[in-house]
Write a structure and sequence with these properties.
This protein is an alpha+beta fold. It contains four helices and six strands, in the order βββαβββααα.
Length: 217
């Protein structure tokens, strides 16, 4: 009996357009090896996931969309630009580092999220083109999905959260030196490579009151 051909499933991407969305997942992917324009470097990565509150799949559950970001506070980084657009306010240098902005504040918060579709190898992919703060008077519902937060910082790593992730995401995380440090095991071959200069580091979980309403986080 032969195995059937792999047709890649019938995954339906989230619809294109601008949607009311709620962030429900923040995953630390650790330092990953990247190749770009013939150069190899290491960068700390995170993954954020949103559910689209008003867009439903055939099973009645909300569509979900995720995006990976370089974990950087540099003013030109996509992460910082998206967070500032989401907050409706720019960050100051004093907002970063120990005692500054805790990125966990975005969990459970709503935004307007714009999705565009791109075609590649006959498949349609949903990509996030922009984020923005909710208009005055608009509120986002609580997320239907469980809030998920995974940190690879020593003392914060939760094995049960890691094990609940998809195998694909876990395999990405397993490649990082941070995972090897908190979970044990062989260290990646690129472990001696330096972290990016603008890696924000651990901020101690501090919440700054200046991020309270009307700024969503």
């Amino acid at each position: 009996m032969y195995m059937p051909p792999n047709n890649g499933g019938d995954f339906t991407p989230p619809p294109a357009g601008t949607h009311l969305a709620v962030c429900y997942r923040l995953i630390d992917l650790g330092t990953q090896l990247q190749e770009y324009q013939g150069q190899t470097k290491t960068q700390r990565k995170i993954m954020l996931s949103w559910e689209l509150s008003e867009e439903r799949m055939d099973d009645g559950k909300p569509f979900m969309v995720s995006q990976r970001y370089t974990y950087s506070s540099h003013e030109k980084s996509t992460l910082r630009q998206h967070l500032e657009a989401w907050r409706g306010a720019r960050f100051k240098d004093s907002d970063f580092g120990v005692g500054g902005f805790d990125i966990r504040n975005i969990l459970g918060k709503g935004c307007l999220l714009s999705i565009i579709h791109t075609e590649k190898d006959g498949k349609t992919y949903a990509n996030i083109s922009s984020l923005s703060k909710l208009p005055k008077g608009m509120t986002a519902p609580s997320p239907e999905n469980e809030i998920v937060y995974l940190s690879l910082e020593p003392g914060e790593f939760k094995r049960e959260v890691f094990e609940a992730l998809s195998e694909g995401v876990k395999n990405i995380i397993r490649k990082s030196p941070e995972f090897a440090l908190v979970a044990g095991g062989a260290r990646p071959a690129y472990d001696d490579a330096p972290l990016p200069d603008n890696y924000p580091g651990d901020n101690g979980g501090h919440h700054d009151a200046s991020f309270d309403d009307p700024i969503p986080f």
